[in-house]
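User: what does the whole thing look like in 3D?
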Amino acid sequence: MMWKDSYKVGVELIDDQHKELFRRLSEFFKVIRGDGSWEDRMAKVKETLEFMQEYVIIHFHDEETYQEEIGFPDLENHKFIHEKFKKEISDCAKTFEAGEMDEDKMQEFGGKLMTWLIMHVGKADQQIGEYARAKEGQA
Amino acid sequence: MKAEYINFFYQATNDVFKLMLNMETEKKNLSVLEDMISSKDVNVHLGITGDLKGNVLFGFPKDMAIEMIKIMSGMEMDKIDSFASSALGEIGNIIGGNALTNLSKNKYVCDIAPPQVFVGKYKSFSLDNEKILQLTLKTDIGEFDISIFLKEK
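Assistant: Here's the predicted 3D structure for the full assembly of 292 residues, as structure tokens:
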């Protein structure tokens, strides 16, 4: 399992969504690294890319709304990073739809995505929880 | 080349290892090389441009590289496929990015070229007499090297 409790932000909604994101991505990575012909696995790849595109929009929206609610100071920068990520996913989906993404290229995308996501959730998102807890402490 | 540059990369490496692999790194050995050489199996190369110009190379033994990706992905893994190689490249990229952010606080503004991953030994001959610093780090899953050559503009 890719998810680790050390990635918890401490905000239930965000943590639940992160867990779901990690769970679906773990499945996706298994498919793109799996055995059997690439053609047979393409349907699952297509399905995950579609899910990812929809789910990151929902998740980023919820996360940004929470950041706004608590007055998180680095919101604009965090939003910018989210936008960049959304674009990476949609660019990948477009390239895949155009038939220009073979197994190797999809694995390359997957490896980068995993590392990026762990870093984002493990570092940048932690600041949301830290800020929320510090604010609660002051109240 | 100033020896202090390597500390920025060591600090960034340690931070990223702690976060991604829940693991500390320990400085084992620092040596001076004539050429950018790595006897390790998997090498991640970063090109640096800007106020400082040069190269950074992370060299991992194969077993350690595989173990790193296993820890991160929670998946079984027995070879460096495109997934693992790309993940390792991105780890190098993140470490390099963090080190450059810290260097920029010291007034050095630099950019980083997309990482290149070489599976197999790496050797690049130096064209001038500049020395390369190689730091060997110890972790619970093996030892790896960071080799650095950076020159002020």
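In plain terms: The helical segments of chain B are 5-21, 62-73, 82-104. The beta strands of chain B are 26-33, 36-38, 42-50, 52-60, 110-112, 116-119, 122-124, 132-139, 142-152.
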